[in-house]
Design a protein that fits this description.
Layout (H helix, E strand, L loop, with lengths): L4 H10 L3 H10 L7 H23 L10 H16 L5 H20 L3 H22 L5
Helix pairs in contact: 1-2, 1-5, 1-6, 3-4, 3-6, 4-5, 5-6
């Protein structure tokens, strides 16, 4: 998708532009998103982010590639939720792109400092959407 506002917000978080990213999240509409569907992706993805952070902290890089099937599964679940029209398609596409295009590739190429930044920004995005958009969710 061209010019995805959620991917733009994610990239702002990735670059450390937190104030502007949070302001954008606050004003960005999230369409046709059920809180239950969002929780179905929020929980597993943030848990994955925490496990990756733990592996990075303990320098267990060799175990990182074992997470690739789980990352792929989560990307598929995100797409599925979007296809069911229970998660904003642009938001789902942004999460999918981060998981597939950024996180998986960074792990496969062993770019550990990138992996750390990617999961940190992804976790911030998911947590922020729950916090800022809770009342907008169906």
């Amino acid at each position: 998708m061209m010019n995805n506002p959620w991917l733009n917000i994610y990239n702002m978080l990735l670059q450390g532009n937190y104030p502007d990213a949070l302001a954008r999240i606050e004003h960005q509409k999230i369409y046709s998103t059920h809180i239950t569907a969002l929780r179905k992706i929020h929980g597993p993805i943030t848990s994955l982010c925490d496990r990756i952070t733990s592996l990075l902290t303990s320098k267990q890089y060799d175990l990182m590639k074992t997470l690739l099937p789980e990352i792929t599964k989560l990307a598929i679940i995100v797409k599925y939720q979007a296809q069911r029209d229970v998660i904003d398609s642009r938001f789902a596409d942004a999460i999918y792109r981060v998981l597939v295009d950024k996180l998986s590739k960074a792990i496969m190429t062993g770019k550990w400092s990138d992996v750390e930044k990617i999961v940190s920004a992804l976790r911030l995005l998911l947590d922020s959407v729950i916090a800022f958009k809770y009342k907008e969710l169906r």
